[in-house]
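[scheduler] slot 2 assigned
[scheduler] job type: sequence-to-structure, two independent chains
[scheduler] chain ordering preserved from manifest
[runner] begin chain α
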Amino acid sequence: MPASPLASVLFVCVHNAGRSQMAAGFLGHLAGDRVEVRSAGSLPADRINPSAIEAMAELGIDITGQEPKVLTTEAVQASDYVITMGCGDACPIFPGKKYLNWELEDPAGKGVEAVRPIRDRIRSRIEALIADIDARQEA
């Protein structure tokens, strides 16, 4: 029987088509089943940003199977970490959650050349997040 995840993380941005999808892709790729990963948007788009898909594919991470999802109160309640990326006041606040706001440029409408630096900033933050989750589990 597999071990239960160490933590659950919800990534939230407006359209759930770029930043939050890349973050979820990185966390799933780098942490595996040690962390439960969710993503959602306050106003979800119709599809994932093609430039985000291409930028992630360059690193061997496939996010083509993902779809933008609407942010629900239940998703927030079920998560230990709630990481917002420009969703403003749309994200409900519940006690006992760790909230982080990552200021990241929105990749909407940008080509892959402009999305790569955003992707790389997200990866750095994901690596730090995994270290934080691991440290909390050891404490």
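[runner] end chain α
[runner] begin chain β
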Amino acid sequence: MRAKISYLVTAAVLVFYFVLVGSRGVMLIQSGTVVTVTFGVAVLILPVIGLWFLWKNTQFVRRANALAAELDAEGGLPVDELKRLPSGRIDRDSADEVFAKRKAETEATPDDWRCWFRLAVAYHDARDTPRARKAMQRAIALHDGKPAGA
């Protein structure tokens, strides 16, 4: 729940910022000179890109959470079997061990979105965020019935 609140607050701040920047872009365009119109258009592009990125990220998070809920209902969420350091951080060797298990599971059944979901969690635990995201995207695509390259 804490992560959702943080995400919503961050999204709200970003939207506020995009509106603020967008209004400045409109003001520049309304000035009417070639230079200010050019800058105004350039300034308006930033909030559009930002809103697009925020929308895509929000879709990704919602779909990943939906998969987590479905997997939880099936009783298939990965169990936290990781050893922790006294500081509370995950022991790297333990994360590597679990990762190897999840990778082998995914290689054995590459078309099962559940395996890809669990592999994404293992990547995340191993602090490999880019691969965790790609594995989760693969899980979402498989769940939605999209082909391998989608």
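[runner] end chain β
[qc] chain β: Helices lie at 2-31, 34-74, 92-108, 113-125, 129-143.
[scheduler] slot 2 released
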